[in-house]
Amino acid sequence: MGRIETDNAPQICPACNVHKRKSPVARAIRWFTCLAVLYAASIALDTPLFSHSFLNNLPASFDWSRDSFTTRGEVCKPPSPNVFATNPPRPSNDFIVKVSREIDNYISKRSSKPDIDSISIAVVTLGGSIFERGYGVLKANESDVQGPLPVGPNSIYRLASISKMFTTLETLILRERGILNWDDPVEKFLPDFSPPSESYGWSSYLDGLQSNGENPASLSDSIGRDYPPSDLEDWPHTKFPGDTASVFEREYDEIIKAVSEFPLVNAPYTYPIYSNTGFDLLGLSNVAANLLASSDPSKEPQTHKELLKRDIFDPLQLNSSFFRVPEEEELKSNIAVPSKDSKWADIPLGDVDDPAGGQYSSLRDLETLMKTFLSPTGKGGLLPAHVIREWLHPLHVWGSTSQQVGAPWEIFSIAGSTVYTKGGNLPGYHSVFAIVPEYSVGIIILVTGTYSDTDTLLKEVGQRLLPALEKLHQVELRRRYVGTWTNGNDVAEIGLVRGVLYLKKLIIGKVDVLKAVEDMNYGLVEKNGSPVALWATGRVGEFRLAFGRPALNKLPDIACFPYWLSIDNGLNSRGAPIDLLFWKNGVLTYPSGGVSFARKR
Question: Where in this chain does the entry annotate a coiled-coil region (predicted)?
Answer without folding.
Answer: none
